[in-house]
Amino acid sequence: MPASEFDKYFLHLPPFDREADFDSFWNAALAELKKIPIEPRFEPRKHGPSGFRTFEASFKSYNKSTILGELSIPKGAKKPRVAIVVHDYNRPDPFARYALDHGLAYFFLQLRGHDLIKPETPEGPRSPGYMVDGIGELSNYYLKGVFLDVYRSIDALRLNGEIDCSAIGILGKGLGAAAALFAASHSNRMAALVLDTPSFCYLSMSQNTSTGDATREINEFLEQHRSRKKTVKKNLSYFDGINFSDRIRCATLATVGFKDTLSPPECVFALFNHLLCEKTIEVYPEEGNRAGEEKQFLKSLKWMAGIVNSA
Fold first, then answer.
1. In angstroms, rounded to a whole number, what is the distance separating the alpha carbons of residues 302 and 278?
2. What is the DSSP letter of 39?
3. What are phi and psi of 46, to 5 degrees?
4. How does residue 118 score in pLDDT terms, banded at 50, 70 and 90?
5. In DSSP terms, which residues pair with 43 in a beta bridge?
6. Interhelix angle for 229-236 vs 213-224, to 10°?
7. Are 200 and 239 in contact (CB under 8 A)?
8. Average pLDDT score over residue span 161-165
């Protein structure tokens, strides 16, 4: 690839657009969350990844909602450390058929509301419309719940006596990467962060270029409510991944596909360039949103296990 072609994607360092009350908003949200009992449950399942004991998990989070997940612990392991895996919006099982590295336990968190999404139609997966739920009222916006759920999962896992949560890894895909960024920026337990084709970052560009469901839902809302564009843009800034990027202190691995239309590479590099931690990016010039697929996923897990287990 010519250097000029690479630079087209790499040379992005947009300014932060944090509002004056950005930190106070999130501090208040976390304080509110702490008042809600976690009520974790881990029920054994008969089936799960090969070589793992698997549990159906649930806990209480923002607005007292029940959040679901699946915890898989390597058979024979004594209190292994754990990685949280967060899927993309409207794509709940991006890694379902992939093998898992046995160096860690894994908590696969399900984004709120995704247990209610109807099966795919012949035209493809249904778009649930969650991304505009409460979008005009910051305190009740859907993404506020999503971000807090990922953070709350850390405390839920700490209450499981079979795993070691003194150092944790977290892997997020797409929108799940933005939520993982939030959790990592607010927890001192994070040792390693994987941003797999992250989306919902550099929103001033991605809202004009991404073809993802999240982007489309928001843009369709704005087409119907043009008078609310300024309010929505301001509210979204509280969730733009870039605005958490300079608070990350753990080692971070990112992946990007130059042909990705869901997570535009310019936006991924804008996020990556703002990271001040130890960081690496895996670049796939000829691939899209599934950049590296299973090979990269396993590589990311091994990288994460090496860092988490040595922390």
1. 17
2. -
3. -75, -30
4. confident
5. 56
6. 150
7. yes
8. 97
- Domain ranges (residues) in the chain: 27-115+124-308
Q: Does the model's pTM come out above 0.85?
A: yes
Chain centroid to CA 129:
18
Which of 115-129, 145-159, 223-237 is the least confident region? 115-129
- Give the CATH superfamily of 27-115+124-308: Alpha/Beta hydrolase fold, catalytic domain (3.40.50.1820)
pLDDT on residue 5: 65
φ, ψ dihedrals at 93, nearest 5°: -130, 55
Which residues lie closer than 8 Å to 167 by C-beta, 6 or more apart? 81, 189, 190, 191, 308, 309, 311
Q: Which two structure tokens, joined as six digits, stand for 163?
A: 């795993």
Chain centroid to Cα 120, Å, comes to 22
Contact 144, 210 (CB under 8 A): no
Residue 97 — pLDDT band, cuts 50, 70, 90? confident
Q: For 59, list phi and psi in degrees, rounded to 5.
A: -160, 165
Helix (H, G, I), strand (E, B) or coil at 226: helix
